[in-house]
TrEMBL record:
Cellular component, GO, one term: peroxisomal membrane
Protein name as catalogued: PXMP4 protein
PANTHER family linked: PEROXISOMAL MEMBRANE PROTEIN 4
Lineage: Eukaryota, Metazoa, Chordata, Craniata, Vertebrata
InterPro entries: Pmp4 (IPR019531)
Organism of derivation: Cepphus grylle
Pfam assignment, any one: Tim17
Amino acid sequence: MAGSGRDAVRALLRAANAILQQRRYRAALAVLKGFRNGAVYGAKIRAPHALVMTFLFKSGSLREKLKSIAQATYTHSRNLAYFVFTYKGLMALQSQLQGKKIPFHSFFAACIGGWLVFGENNPINSQIIMYLLSRILFGLSRLAVEKGYIPQPKQDPFPLVAALIWGTVLWLFEYHRQTLQPSLQSSMTYLYDDSNVWHDISDFLIYNKRTDSK
């Protein structure tokens, strides 16, 4: 019985590999693998981030913290998988309908995917959108220089950009804190507010805050 079971598994693997080699299924299979890669990548990115942020800044029992980490990881992984699936599916459909791939296909497919998958305003989606926004601004700036829309800077503009960004974010934190994303508020509170408070050597060097009632 065991031998026949192994033979059946081998036959199934051979059939699956044969299908994977078929060119006519390539577009559909690419969509499925995109879903897989989105799920895996989302989990890899979110799990360590959620682990660090939860144990650094969130209160509650160990069970509650682990549940929060699992929920954040699942949401990020699911959303990224859905988006890649939607994007690649729409790209394949447009290419099939028009017989070729054009730049607008990418923009349109990603807009639809962004609306459907990332349109809900929640902490996970908000972080992803802000992450992308910063990369987009840098990318568009470089593209504008490459295309000649703005002149090539004579000096590296990065120091000026860094100065303006840090100046703006600390001004917002000090005077308009509610406008910043919650995790950024938590990080900056730890760095700039909590460092103003201590009672003895224990919460000056060892701990951030004392847990006793002294």
